[in-house]
Structures are given as C-alpha cells and as structure tokens.
Design a protein that fits this description.
Length: 252
C-alpha cells in the first residue's frame, strides 16, 4: 500500500495504523467509516457496497488491532454481520500481544431484539457483548444472556458514554467503532471520538444518502489533525486524530 502523506513510501497497514493507548480511565475510540467522493456513507443503505478489496484489507487490519469492536444493531442487520474472521498472521500477532485471537463484537441495541439464533451469535469465536438499556423487556435480555454477555447502559436508551466506560472496565483499551452513522454521531456528540479512519471510495452516488455522522449538530466543530493518507486501487485511506489529544497515541 502506498503512503502519500506524510512521507511517500510503501507501508504495511499494520504499522501505519498501530494499536492505541487508553486515555486516562477510558478506552481510546477509533472510528472506521467509508464514504463516496460525494460524501455518501452508503449505497442502498449498505456501506459495504462502497468497498473493494483494498478497503476490505484495511477493514480487516483495523479489526486485528482492536480489543473490541463496537457496532449499532441497525448496521449489524443491514450489513449482514457474522463472526469475526482473521487470517493466521493476524491471529499470531494478537497472540504475541496477549490478546484473544479475534476481538469480540459489542452490539448497541436499545430494545434488545436481535436474532439470537443467527451465526453472529451461535458461531462466534469470542462471545459477543450486547449493550442495551434497562427499559428493554426482561425476557429479551434473558435471551441475549444465553448467547452473549449483557451490559446495561442507560434507562430509556443506550448511554454511549456509559457503554464505552463499561467496555473499559472489562479491560478493553482499544475500541474500534464501525458505525453506523448514528452511532458515530453519538460518539462525537459525547466527546468520545478520538480517531477517525475514513476510506474515500472512488464512486459518485448522489441522492440523499446519509453522511458518516448522522445526528444532532455538534455543539462545537471538532478539529482533527491528519496523520496519514494511504492509497490503493483508487481508494484513499485517511487517518485523523483529535488535534488536542496527545494521550491517544500509538503504543510503543
């Protein structure tokens, strides 16, 4: 993969992205999203339609670097999520880092009504985590606890700050958020978005597709610092970090 910025070179995406350090008493949160050249975050409600082999490779790399993956229930359903699969090289790296061979996936769901018999749950190598609210029906929470670890984070809805904090309490220092745009907006609104990895897909989509953040306007725009620009197969891979944060840095 070619690095265009800061220094032109051939790079290994594992080295280019790296793992991240905990910020104080909470995990570092890295968001991975994709958008078309004209800003669409999905085609036909699926972000996967914007991707290609190069994007899939970076997607897998970022997963391999994470302690836990965070995703919204709607994205899980729309994108047809299944268990995490990593190649043997990635699994060996994780073994050397003292991590589980694949990261678990934590699903945010207010109502706690998912298909508990789907391969996402029944074939997962690492037991999934379901993060839901206390207002979810007890029977649904009981069903969830049969196939996943359940975290209660909020009353009428899922409190994103509570959710991230609970993942940190479980020892997860690197949280990889994969969206969708609603979850991304919640993270940004709660001042929890530390790094953004944005893939620019070489497609024009048009229409009224959502942007990578779909929610209320931020009280103040968040300034980001560009860390690198990679390129492969016409895709651009942009890595931004919150400019103010020096604690969210690659681990040595």
């Amino acid at each position: 993969m070619r690095q265009l910025f800061p220094n032109p070179a051939e790079v290994d995406p594992v080295d280019a992205y790296g793992r991240l350090s905990r910020i104080g008493d909470r995990p570092c949160v890295r968001l991975n999203m994709i958008a078309s050249v004209d800003g669409a975050a999905a085609v036909g409600n699926r972000s996967g339609a914007l991707g290609g082999p190069a994007d899939h490779a970076v997607f897998a790399t970022l997963r391999s670097l994470a302690d836990v993956i965070l995703v919204g229930a709607a994205t899980m359903r729309d994108e047809g999520y299944g268990p995490v699969h990593l190649d043997e090289e990635a699994r060996e790296r994780r073994r050397q880092w003292g991590l589980t061979l694949v990261p678990p996936i934590a699903v945010l769901t207010r109502r706690c009504r998912l298909d508990w018999s789907s391969p996402f749950f029944t074939e997962a190598e690492q037991r999934p985590v379901v993060i839901t609210s206390t207002s979810a029906i007890t029977a649904d929470r009981d069903h969830a606890s049969e196939v996943a670890d359940v975290i209660l984070a909020g009353e009428d809805g899922v409190d994103i700050a509570h959710a991230v904090g609970a993942l940190g309490e479980r020892g997860y220092d690197n949280v990889l958020a994969e969206g969708g745009p609603g979850v991304a907006a919640q993270l940004a609104g709660a001042d929890l978005l530390d790094e953004l990895c944005l893939t620019v897909s070489p497609l024009l989509v048009g229409g009224d597709a959502r942007r990578i953040l779909d929610g209320d306007s931020l009280e103040l725009p968040t300034r980001l610092a560009l860390r690198h620009v990679l390129e492969a197969d016409g895709y651009l891979f942009l890595r931004y970090r919150r400019q103010w944060s020096r604690l969210c840095a690659p681990s040595p």
